[in-house]
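REVIEWER CHECKLIST
Item 1: Sequence provided? yes
Item 2: Single chain? yes
Item 3: Sequence as submitted:
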Amino acid sequence: MCEPDLVLLILPSARAMTFSTPEAAESAFYAAFEARDLDAMMAVWASDDSVACIHPMAAPLNGRAAVAAGWRSMFEAAGQFRVQVELAHEVREAGQVIRIVREHLFIGQETEPRPPILATNVYRKEADGWRMVLHHASPLQVGGTPPTRTPTVVLH
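Item 4: Structure as written out by the authors:
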């Protein structure tokens, strides 16, 4: 008998969605997050074990099975919520996009968001479209701003 994580890794339906842009992948990521839909969530992620996820105040989850288990635990514990995402910074390189976003979470019927979460989402261009390879979220100090991009320095 296969473990649930292993079934998720091999089922074609888990990879049926394709994302033509990093923005489409990110939109699907946050839709799956709000819906607490593990299959839709894992369809956004790259299929190899290079993926990693760090939830706020938690240890890193490395590899697809660990990432899926982390999201499963979070979804099982979460009540109803919604999230608004605000782009803070973006870096585009050949075949890879890094997006730093502020996540504004509204729990239940709240009309005011909780303190913001700052997340770094990294997407990689693959043969079947754009896929997430990293999500790292941490609390943002109120009034804090993400760093701006600084020029790359090459050391000899």
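Item 5: Key structural point noted by reviewer: The chain has a mean pLDDT of 86.
Item 6: Recommendation: ____
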